[in-house]
């Protein structure tokens, strides 16, 4: 009898894994058309490209990444809401992006103490999902920014300056969007978010050991610690791409994490193939790189909720272009981008399979 029960359990587990695998692979061809939007992504993408072009023209190419990332990532959250609500969302996101970048800048000189710091920050960012969709999105972005600037190559920027540059890039997108909507869509500016429970009450409702977001925060902290330790051990160029990828992809549900991991690998490979082919066949000038950064940022923002793999291809194109603007080797970055994505994907897959359930949320 015990053997039969064990066999049934194994059968059920195999069926679940097979179903999950089919769902993950099937998501490759599904585009959620209702989540496709282009106006706000185009605004943010153009601002991103113009900031990159200004860095080239002024000779401040080391500013390209924080300025462009601030302009670009500020528009990632809540793009489907009326502009009045989206404006408030962008403002909060701008502050969280600057905070994440500043914390990462300070942590960049702490060596292996980063393992403790990243555990604390990842736990907090994972649990931020209990605040709702915006909390989950902004928590992920804070962790992404922390990972980028905690492991970024040393430049003449210190932590506070890095945070300010990110904030300036964010403000550029916010102000440009505000002007455009004030001139052509003023009616959307009066929209206000509906009433909701206070942040404190929402956090307290989820503060128990079996809550899905608490479990997600713990799991995320463990994977981020391992990813950061592996990155330090490997000493690859842009070693932070490993924990950064984990921060981008991880979600409370194991199946969703596996799906996003698959899309991340596909999107990275597609982006690398596209930009490598373009570089080899057409070459590039610095200002063409700024155009590529704008195109990649726009593609990301258009598809971020419609098809994650296409959005990741946009991320890859924009990132490769921005680092080329800073004078870094494109060929080396392309190779290590792929390897970092594969290593992070392996860690995420292992975490999702070993710890597939994310606990139960309090209703």
Topology overview:
Elements: H1 2-26, H2 39-58, H3 64-73, H4 83-107, H5 114-127, H6 133-151, H7 159-184, H8 199-205, H9 212-234, H10 241-249, H11 254-282, H12 286-303, H13 308-325, H14 330-354
Instruction: Evaluate the radius of gyration.
Output: 20 Å
Shape: globular
Helix content: over 70%
% residues in beta strands:
under 5%
Low-confidence spans = 359-363
| Count of spatially separate domains | 1
Number of strands: 0
Distance between the termini: 38 Å
Task: Calculate the mean pLDDT score and round it.
Answer: 89
Specify the biggest β-sheet.
none
N-to-C SSE string, H for helix and E for strand = HHHHHHHHHHHHHH
User: Total helix count?
Assistant: 14
Give a quick summary of the entry.
With 363 residues, the chain is an all-alpha fold. The protein is 74% helix and 0% strand. It has helices at 2-26, 39-58, 64-73, 83-107, 114-127, 133-151, 159-184, 199-205, 212-234, 241-249, 254-282, 286-303, 308-325, 330-354.
């Amino acid at each position: 009898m015990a053997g039969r029960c064990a066999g049934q359990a194994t059968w059920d587990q195999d069926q679940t894994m097979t179903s999950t695998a089919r769902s993950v692979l099937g998501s490759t061809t599904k585009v959620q058309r209702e989540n496709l939007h282009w106006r706000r992504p185009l605004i943010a993408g153009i601002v991103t490209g113009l900031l990159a072009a200004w860095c080239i023209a002024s000779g401040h190419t080391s500013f390209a990444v924080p300025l462009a990332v601030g302009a670009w990532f500020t528009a990632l959250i809540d793009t489907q809401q009326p502009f009045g609500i989206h404006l408030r969302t962008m403002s909060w996101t701008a502050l969280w992006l600057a905070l994440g970048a500043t914390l990462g800048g300070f942590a960049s000189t702490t060596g292996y103490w980063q393992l403790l710091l990243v555990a604390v920050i990842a736990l907090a960012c994972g649990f931020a999902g209990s605040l709702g969709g915006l909390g989950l999105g902004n928590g992920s972005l804070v962790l992404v920014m922390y990972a980028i600037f905690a492991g970024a190559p040393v430049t003449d920027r210190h932590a506070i300056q890095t945070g300010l540059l990110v904030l300036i890039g964010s403000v550029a997108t916010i102000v440009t969007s505000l002007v455009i909507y004030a001139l052509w869509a003023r009616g959307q500016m009066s929209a206000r978010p509906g009433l909701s429970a206070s942040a404190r009450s929402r956090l307290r409702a989820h503060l128990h050991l079996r809550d899905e977001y608490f479990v997600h925060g713990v799991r995320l902290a463990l994977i981020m610690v391992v990813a950061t330790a592996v990155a330090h051990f490997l000493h690859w160029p842009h070693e932070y791409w490993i924990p950064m990828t984990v921060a981008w992809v991880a979600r409370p549900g194991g199946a969703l994490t596996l799906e996003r991991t698959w899309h991340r690998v596909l999107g990275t490979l597609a982006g690398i193939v596209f930009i490598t082919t373009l570089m080899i066949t057409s070459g590039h000038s610095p200002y063409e790189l700024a155009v590529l950064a704008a195109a990649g940022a726009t593609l990301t923002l258009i598809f971020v909720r419609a098809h994650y793999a296409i959005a990741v291809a946009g991320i890859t194109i924009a990132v490769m272009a921005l680092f080329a603007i800073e004078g870094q080797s494109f060929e080396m970055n392309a190779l290590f981008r792929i390897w970092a994505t594969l290593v992070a994907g392996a860690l995420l897959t292992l975490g999702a399979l070993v710890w597939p359930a994310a606990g139960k949320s309090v209703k």
